Amino acid sequence: MEQNTTTTTTVETTTVETNVRPTFLTVLCILSFIFGGLGILGLIMLIVGMGALSAGAAAVEGAGGTITSTGPSMGLTWAYLVVGFVTALISLYGVVKMWKMEKIGFFLYTGATVVSMIMGVVYSGFGFMTILPLVFVILYGLNLKHLK
After folding, report:
1. Alpha-helical runs (H) found in the chain
2. pLDDT tier at 42 (50, 70, 90 boundaries)?
3. Residue 90: helix, strand or coil by DSSP?
4. Is 100 exposed, middle or buried (0-12, 13-18, 19+ CB in 10 A)?
5. Contact 27, 142 (CB under 8 A)
6. What residue ranges do the domains of the chain occupy?
7. Other C-beta atoms within 10 Å of 66: how many?
8. Cα 128 to chain center, whole Å?
9. What Å distances lie between residue 52 and 46, 48, 55, 62, 79, CA to CA?
């Protein structure tokens, strides 16, 4: 005699939810990587240049000469460069965190941008370069719902 047996196998499917980075956020991050990298390189060059200028000024004053400046003081310029460099590094780190879809990156970026904007207004007044970072903060803010 023949016997028929039926076997039933149940396969469980699991859904893995991944946080996919929106294209708009990707474009913003890439632009920020480019501008942030160029900004850091520019600040490094300015810091080296200011070091050479300070050494030259000290040599002139040491030889009995005087230097007259109508711009911001040397101390304010150094403060601007150091704060600019630190805020550029923090904002770039914030962009890396946003690239990884972490919400803390938005807050790091925003904080560094606000400090940088305040220092820019103190040093050179209000201008277009004061508004542009604010636009990026707003655009990143539109993507905040996608970050975890």
Report:
1. 23-62, 74-99, 104-124, 128-142
2. very high
3. helix
4. middle
5. no
6. 24-64+74-146
7. 7
8. 18
9. 10, 6, 5, 15, 16
pLDDT digits (tens, 9 = 90+) for 97-107: 999 999 999 99
| Dihedral angle of Cα 127, 132, 137, 139, to the nearest 10 degrees | 140
Alpha-carbon span 37 to 43, nearest angstrom: 10
Look up residue 23 and give its amino acid: T
Q: Is the dihedral of CA 80, 81, 82, 84 positive or negative?
A: positive
147 φ/ψ angles, rounded to the nearest 5 degrees = -85, 150
CA distance 127 to 140: 21
Residue 84 CA to residue 43 CA, distance in Å, equals 7
User: Minimal CA–CA distance to 32: which of 87, 91, 110, 107?
Assistant: 91
What are 128's two structure tokens?
Answer: 């277009």
Task: Convert the pLDDT of each residue in 73-94 to its tens digit.
Answer: 777 788 888 999 999 999 999 9
Q: How many other C-beta atoms are found inside a 10 Å radius of the C-beta of residue 72?
A: 13
